[in-house]
Amino acid sequence: MNEKKRIEYIDSMRGFTMLLVVAHHVAANCLGIGDYVPSIHPILCEFRMPLFFFISGFVLYKEETIWNASHVARFLVFKKFPVQIITTSIFFLVFIKLNHIGLVEGLYTDSKFGYWFTLALFAFFCIYAICRYMLGLFNCKNILADIILLSIGFLLFVLFYVKSVYFKLPIEDEIRNLFSLKFLGYFLYFTIGTLFKKHFNIIQVILDKKYVLTICLVIFFGFNLFYNELVSTHDSLFHLITAFVGIVIVFSFFRIHQDLFKKERNIGKCLQYVGRRTLDIYLLHYLLLPTNLKTYFTSLTECPIPIIEFTITIIVTLIVVMGCLVISRILRMSPVLSYLLFGVKKQKN
């Protein structure tokens, strides 16, 4: 998507989502806020990563794209592999070196110490591109292609996200961890993002109906009101529904208030800048997290006050993000480092 076609409130929403990601890592890794501590973070986590993948799918879809063999090869090998794999590998190696972690131990950790996201996103690009190519070969278009893609998303969600005691793929835990297979279930939200963009005009008409947003708000907060009962019996279904309605709520908020998120507004300018530097922030922020903060804020876990904890989290988050942006700006001054670390080629004047 070129500069003229960028949707400003989508860039702002991506920036907002990046802030949520960093805020969660600050709370968990720096302040020691776990699921057992009363906090707003578990509620935000219900839609945080699904929203990130949804936006990635939304931004990727372009109606004019023809997914033939040459385009798929260029897209995956020359465009996405350097950005998603090479850059992530460099930062991953730096992280484990600084933290005195062995390479084998790091590789066989399913989360890759946080660097799983870009790896999973590359896998989603591969799955989506190959599916679109195959659908083109069999001349599957429009609603049939949408149904097939959505079905693949649901299948991966069931196989890798649903925690069932009755069915589990016969894959060794080492293989699951090495390839971070448990995150493949997020492909469903990536697919939903592409379909939102494809049918954007219809989606906007639906979202303009007042009862749609009302229903989503009632479901989201109603489900969280009965969180313990629903999670204990329908864990995966609970997270699927809350993730989807959470996405709709956030998407609707930014769309309804899109004038607030234009470049001319300070909040829009800041969020858009963060939104266009999500990769830089994601890769850098793990190196800047002040993990020893929990020793100074032990009262947040012993006698938790959610509003105070959240305020401290936001302050630390903004400091970390600003640090990432400054370092990113410095590193991007070098064309070589800009390409190696962030996959950005210097454009010719």
What's the helix and strand layout?
Elements: H1 8-30, H2 41-45, H3 48-60, H4 69-98, H5 103-107, H6 116-137, H7 142-160, H8 173-178, H9 187-198, H10 200-207, H11 210-225, H12 227-256, H13 266-275, H14 278-288, H15 299-302, H16 306-331, H17 335-342
Helix pairs in contact: 1-3, 1-12, 1-13, 1-14, 1-16, 3-9, 3-12, 4-6, 4-14, 4-17, 7-9, 11-12, 14-16
Q: What is the overall pLDDT average? A: 92
Order of helices and strands: HHHHHHHHHHHHHHHHH
Number of strands: 0
| Major beta-sheet overview | none
* C-alpha-based Rg, rounded: 20 Å
Number of helices: 17
Helical content stands at over 70%
For the terminal residues, how far apart are their CA atoms? 19 Å
Q: Runs with pLDDT <50, length 5+?
A: none
Structural class: mainly alpha
Strand content: under 5%
Global morphology: globular
